[in-house]
TrEMBL record:
Family the UniProt entry places it in: Belongs to the DDAH family.
Name the UniProt record assigns to this protein: Dimethylargininase
Region (Disordered): 304-353
Record keywords: Hydrolase
Record's keyword annotation contains Zinc-finger: no
Entry keyword annotation includes Hydrolase: yes
GO biological process: arginine metabolic process; citrulline metabolic process; positive regulation of nitric oxide biosynthetic process
Polar residues composition bias: residue spans: 304-315, 326-353
Molecular-function GO term, any one: amino acid binding
Length: 364
């Protein structure tokens, strides 16, 4: 069994207000933030360094709340074995946000590609929630109003080393990973709905490899996240099928993600896992940059109250002057601006969890 490894996880910081796209499901922002914090902390305990993209500034005229889907970074980019593909959802994402993601991933992957607007003269639509990577091949759900055949063609061209299999869906309201999820590279979790069972039949018929299955009675509990020999799953539902994996060599970590699920299901869409060591040598250059910039930041990052309970680590940076850089400490947290030439950061805010330096100039 291949281990599903990750060195980093990418998140989008939750703003103080979001517009629910389902008027019947009101989102409690405070609980949403707490659950995102718990997800980040759980991944950190699993050995994953956390990168959090800051809230985008709005103009004085723009008073509309961001849609809940705006924090689903897993819909905006797909990262597989050192290659990143910026997607193209039907609802065009914020251009500045996509630029942030691309800049950050250039420090963690060896190639960043972008889904074009058109393929063979037809509009491209590709959403990360419709893409399921098993570790050996890629399934992509094709559904009305979301990922289309043209998007799947771009996916196949980008990840040439893996078979890409299209699964046509009847459910236009939920992405593929709502119905199917990877427990590990040989076991698929699947729901009991007609749609889920139909998708599984096609997987078993068209896949290049054989998979075992775990059938989950509560469709909301299908989504799970395997990282570094840990399986994160929903403990806030009545279905506890994942407990049958006790003693299988994988740690089971149940989580309450009720509010995260209201913003978007499955909860794995709230983050993007990255294995920086899969970058075919890029990681060695990245680690060298990390050591160099970390040393400079330690001596120049002047905080109102310096973190005292951990070493500062640079999580990601492009070598180009002026690119975004994220920094994480083992405890205290800050966000602000900094340079490596002796200047101090501005607008520093302390908190718990992830440290963000939104702009660090790397002088060469």
């Amino acid at each position: 069994m291949q281990a599903m490894r990750a060195t980093h996880a990418l998140f989008i910081r939750i703003p103080d207000a979001l517009k629910s796209e389902d008027k019947k499901r009101k989102i409690d922002i405070d609980i949403l933030k707490r659950q995102q914090d718990e997800l980040r902390a759980t991944l950190y305990e699993a050995g994953v360094q956390i990168i959090e993209l800051p809230i985008l500034e709005k103009s004085a005229k723009d008073k509309d709340k961001d849609p809940a889907s705006s924090i689903l970074v897993g819909d905006l980019v797909i990262v597989i074995r050192g290659i990143a593909l910026l997607t193209r959802p039907k609802k065009e994402p914020n251009a500045e946000r996509m630029k942030q993601i691309a800049t950050t991933l250039r420090g963690l992957t060896w190639a960043v590609h972008e889904t074009p607007k058109e393929e063979n003269g037809n509009k491209c639509v590709l959403e990360g929630g419709d893409v399921l990577f098993t570790g050996r091949e890629i399934f992509v759900g094709i559904r009305k109003g979301a990922t289309n055949v043209e998007g799947a063609m771009v996916l196949a061209r980008t990840f040439r080393d893996f078979p890409v299999i299209t699964l046509f869906m009847n459910d236009k309201n939920h992405p593929l990973r709502h119905h199917l999820s990877m427990v590990n590279d040989k076991v698929i979790a699947v729901g009991t709905s007609k749609e889920a069972q139909s998708l599984l039949e096609r997987v078993e018929r068209e896949a290049s490899f054989r998979y075992k299955r775990i059938t989950v009675d509560d469709e909301a509990a299908v989504g799970c996240l395997n990282v570094n020999d840990r399986l994160l799953f929903r403990s806030d539902t009545k279905d506890a099928k994942y407990n049958i994996l006790q003693g299988s060599g994988i740690e089971l970590w149940g989580m309450d993600v009720t509010e995260l699920a209201k913003a978007g299901t499955p909860f794995s869409r709230h983050c993007v896992l990255i294995d920086a060591d899969a970058g075919n040598g890029r990681s060695s250059a990245y680690n060298s940059l990390t050591r160099s910039v970390t040393k400079s930041i330690k001596t120049t990052l002047s905080l109102g109250s310096k973190p005292t309970n951990g070493t500062t680590h640079v999580n990601g940076a492009s070598v180009k002057n002026g690119d975004a850089l994220q920094v994480q400490t083992n405890g205290a947290s800050s966000s602000g601006y900094g340079t490596t030439d002796g200047a101090s950061p501005s607008s520093v805010q302390e908190g718990n969890g992830t440290t963000i330096v939104t702009s660090v100039h790397v002088h060469q």
